[in-house]
Amino acid sequence: MLTIGTFHTLRIDRTTLVGLFLTDGKNDVLLPNKYVPKTYEIGDEITVFVYLDHEERPVATTLQPYITINDFAFLRVNYINQFGAFLDWGLEKDIFAPFLEQARKMEVGKRYMVHLYLDEKTNRLVASSKINQFLNQEPPTYEVGEEVTLLYSHQSELGINVIINKKHKGLIYADGFYEDKFRPGDQTTGYIKALRPDGKIDVSLQKQGFESIEPNAEKILNELKINRGFLRLNDNSHPEDIKTVLKMSKKTFKKAVGMLYKQKQIEIKEDGIYLVK
């Protein structure tokens, strides 16, 4: 049987009234007529996603689901019955999240971070919002400054909780998070900031140390050019004012300004910073 919940590149084996039968040489699966390409030949290869249809039979589709097996995604609840919730994952048949796999009771219309896994007892794909059980519990081996992939999970009092490389939990502290367009379910690049003795991981959206100063200095220069060579910001500015204008922390701002000042690209005065002409 073909693995469900993932993509397969299969060969077109034969045509029928209901669609094309695809094969990997050992296993066949139906690609219904609605997904059959306009032009094809027997023997052509096609990449499809395999899952179970309404009658629990393997079926192929050319649609792109929002989540694949052993992955995480932020999905919306379409409806709820006495057994659990059914989430929209981009395919005709919603994905099931039983009550036992809900970290908190799901509500129709709301979105939740879930993990998609194969229930070995039923051979069905199941969504779970109890995501901690699917994260790697082994001590992380990242290095400070290492580039990683971040998936935004949820916000807390401390900052933004993320999933690192689909394996570990991480945190972007509130004072290091300034991307207004970053929403739950979004994926972005980040950097390991600190590995704590208790196993917790701090991450940042910017490179740490000297490497992070150069792009921020460039950003300040660009803002100065846009604003006719002047920004009403300096060492005495409130952190929120700096955040509003430049989307960076005051600490990062001061480092970047210091670099520009040493390079004699700006002047620092009581009312702000000026671009040297």
From TrEMBL:
Residues 4-62, 75-128 form the Conserved virulence factor B first S1 domain. Residues 218-275 form the Conserved virulence factor B-like winged helix domain. The lineage of its organism: Bacteria, Pseudomonadati, Bacteroidota, Flavobacteriia, Flavobacteriales. Pfam families: S1_2, WHD_CvfB. This is GntR family transcriptional regulator. Coiled coil: none annotated. It comes from Flavobacterium orientale. Belongs to the CvfB family.
